[in-house]
Write a structure and sequence with these properties.
Elements: E1 3-7, E2 14-19, H1 22-31, E3 37-41, E4 48-52, H2 64-76, E5 87-93, E6 97-98, E7 109-110, E8 114-118
Antiparallel strand pairs: 1-2, 2-4, 3-4, 3-5, 5-8, 6-7
Length: 119
């Protein structure tokens, strides 16, 4: 089941979706909007978190508090990431994720990746 959350760090609250399993991640990949922002703990298995971009906000202007909410959510839902003192979280616009027939369910090639380190 795909989970939905509201971050109240911005007004109006921002909608965040999370998939914990390959099938859920695949669904989010297919149904996500091009401007949604995808988050994942770098180099370890983790949930996929998608931020539905609030009106007037771009990937370059995501408020720090909202960015932190997404990073903490993806880190907390990674078996390995949640045990790390600091985890590197990668994020990019949904339109930068590409799927090929040879890839496993929930897997995608990423481009224009940004990285952030979070406690």
């Amino acid at each position: 089941m795909v989970f939905g959350y509201f971050s109240t760090t911005v007004c109006p609250p921002a909608l965040i979706f999370m998939g914990q399993h390959q099938e859920e991640n695949e669904r989010l990949l297919k149904e996500g909007l091009p401007d949604d922002v995808w988050f994942h703990v770098d180099k370890v298995p983790s949930a996929h978190v998608y931020l539905q971009m609030p009106r007037g906000i771009t990937i370059d202007t995501i408020p720090e508090e909202l960015l932190d909410d997404c990073c903490q959510l993806v880190k907390a839902n990674s078996k390995i990431g949640k045990k790390m003192d600091k985890a590197t979280v990668v994020y990019t616009k949904r339109e930068n994720l590409k799927k090929t027939k040879m890839m496993d369910s929930g897997e995608a090639r990423k481009s224009e990746i940004r990285k952030i380190r979070k406690k």
